[in-house]
TrEMBL record, chains A, B:
Residues 107-120, 128-139 have a biased composition (Polar residues). Its main location: membrane. This is Sorting nexin. The keyword Membrane applies. Pfam families: BAR_3_WASP_bdg (PF10456), PX (PF00787), SH3_1 (PF00018). Residues 87-176 are annotated as: Disordered. Residues 1-62 form the SH3 domain. It comes from Cirrhinus molitorella (mud carp). PANTHER family: SORTING NEXIN, SORTING NEXIN-9.
Amino acid sequence: METKAQVLYDFTAEPGNNELSVREGETITITNQSIGGGWVEAKNSRGEVGLVPEDYIEVNQAQPFTSGGNAAPIDLSFFDSHMPAQASTAQVDVAQPETPVTPVSPGFSSTSPDETSNGNDPWAVFDNNASGGFSNNWAAQPEGTETGKNSSNAWHSGGHGHPQAYQGPGAEDDEWDEEWDDVKSSGGYAESEAGEGGAITRGGAHGSSMKIALNKFPGFSKSGPELYLLSKQPAKGNKLPVYSGDVGPVWAYPDYQLDCVVADPKKGSKMYGLKSYIEYQVTPTTTNKPVNHRYKHFDWLYERLLDKFGSAIPIPCLPDKQVTGRFEEEFIKMRMERLQGWMTRMCRHPVISSSEVFQLFLSYKDEKDWKTGKRKAEKDETVGVMIFSTIEPEGLPDMEIIEVEQKCEQFNRFTRAMDDGVKDLLTIGNEHWKRCTGPLPKEYQRIGKAFQNLSSVFTSSGYEGEATLTDALTSAGKTYEEIAQMVAEQPKKDLHFLMETNNEYKGLLGCFPDTIGVHKAAIEKVKEADKLVAAGKITPSEKVGMSKRASTMSYALQAEMNHFHSNRIYDYNRVMQQYLEQQVKFYEMIAEKLRLAHSQFTTM
Amino acid sequence: METKAQVLYDFTAEPGNNELSVREGETITITNQSIGGGWVEAKNSRGEVGLVPEDYIEVNQAQPFTSGGNAAPIDLSFFDSHMPAQASTAQVDVAQPETPVTPVSPGFSSTSPDETSNGNDPWAVFDNNASGGFSNNWAAQPEGTETGKNSSNAWHSGGHGHPQAYQGPGAEDDEWDEEWDDVKSSGGYAESEAGEGGAITRGGAHGSSMKIALNKFPGFSKSGPELYLLSKQPAKGNKLPVYSGDVGPVWAYPDYQLDCVVADPKKGSKMYGLKSYIEYQVTPTTTNKPVNHRYKHFDWLYERLLDKFGSAIPIPCLPDKQVTGRFEEEFIKMRMERLQGWMTRMCRHPVISSSEVFQLFLSYKDEKDWKTGKRKAEKDETVGVMIFSTIEPEGLPDMEIIEVEQKCEQFNRFTRAMDDGVKDLLTIGNEHWKRCTGPLPKEYQRIGKAFQNLSSVFTSSGYEGEATLTDALTSAGKTYEEIAQMVAEQPKKDLHFLMETNNEYKGLLGCFPDTIGVHKAAIEKVKEADKLVAAGKITPSEKVGMSKRASTMSYALQAEMNHFHSNRIYDYNRVMQQYLEQQVKFYEMIAEKLRLAHSQFTTM
């Protein structure tokens, strides 16, 4: 079968590079997917064949496509075999804790028979009151990844991202690949990179939502929310109180807000220099003692946090691994900036920042100490839905299930709407970035050149006394050339931060379908409690306990949402101010330059 | 034979209009040229057939193409039959004054046998020292017309011109067609509209260079410069003195510079209302008495001026006849503005403004008076090269032919270089216009919408106390929508005038190949004088006379160039000042709007 693809952006072939010029909207046929380096070979409707950047095209849906080079496709076939297409309920199946997805138990089913698969929308799972939301997320996840594509790498300032700056075939950085290899071998990524089946994630196409949650979320795979709802174990670990604040339920905030500085990236090596890596210096404001961490340490922390808190708190992904940048320095700078953003967000979170594992990360002393802490953290049993067992609403009345459900629906609607809004802004910002760094400055440059050219023609006239005009015209021309440069550099000064903030929020919001899914599933279970009692599956007192626990879960979610809102207001206020301030400076500077150019012409 | 055409601009078909979307650079096949209304039917490479605007395509060279509707194709076949392809010399053939092109006389030939046709470049005629430049211009003229296409209608603000605003099929304005009919029937255009042969001028595709000089230039068709160089007649008509000024030879400038105001267009009708037309009010600053003129009167004036002064003074074309605008009012406004520009330029010229025919135009009293003056002007015999017989260099020494030639070469080089520079600026300005009125404001609008959308999502959060943020965000969004509108409207405030001025200069510069051609031909004749004397064709005293007259011609040309330069310096100084002033205001206003938007966010 032929693999067709749609061209997303115009791409102009460089002569002699065996490339193929394509235009936005064109349909091409993939003739070779295993070129690598972010390229595929394709044929256009005129039969011309050549290389096209992978990121410039979108393979038509439902057609298999594997990236030749950088992509880490997710093998969905593995999950498909475990999960019916219409999976809609979850089962209490504590006996099979290692099964990634628990099969449907008829006894727990409450869904209507016409309820169909939710297709590709990560949010669609909640559209028709599907009960087993979180298991439907398996199917939904790829789309979350897919939509992340347009706005993750495509817009930022580095050598990767901007189409004009796209690196040619073979421009991969082997050194960095090595670090990925390193990461890969230590992490749990093997299966996600193996298959060709339903691969949709493409090279450089990762969003920052929970893209690998499907096989990195043991908390989910071990159990449904029933594990907590019906748990008889006493809570282990530190208590997480939820208080009644001005805006509703809130987490306990520390008096002193933790922060840290990620800085000073240094190249290290191991295995007698065969493997090299970058270490970042992380300095917490509490101790002011710097600790060094490699990306893979951050990644380990991310996995622990996801395991432990993911059911209650959205844990945004780390900045993409798979960034292929031509310029090492820019890549490191960009990654550091994003690790800083991630760490700041984690520090700001009262639950995460005070957690043992996070403190361990910030207080790394030596390899031995680290390994001990690591082992301990990996053995933590209060993970997945069990985190809710540590939550203690203080002075807050138990909520009715109907209210719990309403709150959950409200958060779902909001995060979903915000997700749309943020993605929309990212798409537009991305296009604006391209215009500001591509055609627009080129045009100003050409205007500048045209003025200067006219000036030199005028100079050749042999007519006396026009030096004032020609000097002024040259100066105006140079001004437009300067403006061209300003225009091209401006996005780094303002749009960059707006995009980064929205990208962070896209990552955060991408976690909500999973988090909210856990709550949805719990609510469904509680609503089924009467039937379960009638069927003798649970006792009446267990039913009361389930309802109380759903209430506790809701307080946790409310506290988390209030935390999210207060951060959101702070972040958007700050970034919009910064954006507008820089925009004002930009336009003022242009006006000032033009005023100067204007003054050089004779007043008549 | 299939007629292929290149697509010059992207065109997006409107649904249901039987239109065909085409992309810049695409090759299409014309399937029906007689659609009319500025449209042709064409087929693309995928076999799809539909209507495409004529102005968006360029028919591949050497293929016949006739516009179906508005075009007034020039029948070159008529001239071809009179003129050998390699026509390179002109003949003194006073006995055949009515022959449009005089055949080559071997006795006057001085060209090398390998000198080939100059093809399509109006300037190419001077590249290889062709002697009979002016007759080669016959071949060159169509290109002059052709190159005018891109920048005449394509950029200005009205309903015509901007590709986005292109009218659909059948949107012709019959009323205006009627006026053209009227003009056609009374003017000398019949032959230029008859044929299908070498038609290159297309609907709406006229530049403002001397596009119809070939059959509107009896001064050229009656004779070569020999008519003047060897003339024994005494000069008729008013003398045109050339003085020695600070910058070299100059025309005699009047103490008071004439100007006039073109205003108050009014619809009139004749033939019991069957034919309608627009009358413009022309008010000279001298008399302050308004006179009314229809476009056809302007056109008559243009023809008279071209006849009389065209050999010595570039007479720019009137604004295009063939503008098809959807909006009558905008069309009339645009034409008026351009007629004003043309009249101002004519008024500023000391020779033209003081001429009898120009004064007749400005002092129109009644139909009878006008007709008498018209007849007189049409009988004027001091036309074509004979205008030089009225020129009297005052106190200026006779110039050697070598110096005459050097001056002529210098002017040729300059006007040619400026023509390139001006066309370059027009092309860039055209693109900038399209960007500023098309994609750029759309992008700002989308940014504005995205901010507002995010604001309304935030409002739906249910979280208390974020009204300041959401209000500020809405306000920022609206600001970007306002900026979008400012961006879209700005070109009318600044780029428009820059474009108009350059368009005027393109028109003027397009006349120079003809004007300089006359001088080149005269120089060649003078350089052949020795041979002619030796062959007994002219007497030695005739040779001396020829040289003196070439010197007079050169003074006329120098005076004209100095006039051109002084006007150019004035015009460009003024238009650049205006442009930059408006640009400064534009950027300042944007900065101010953004400053206001910025101030609405909370300072933290």
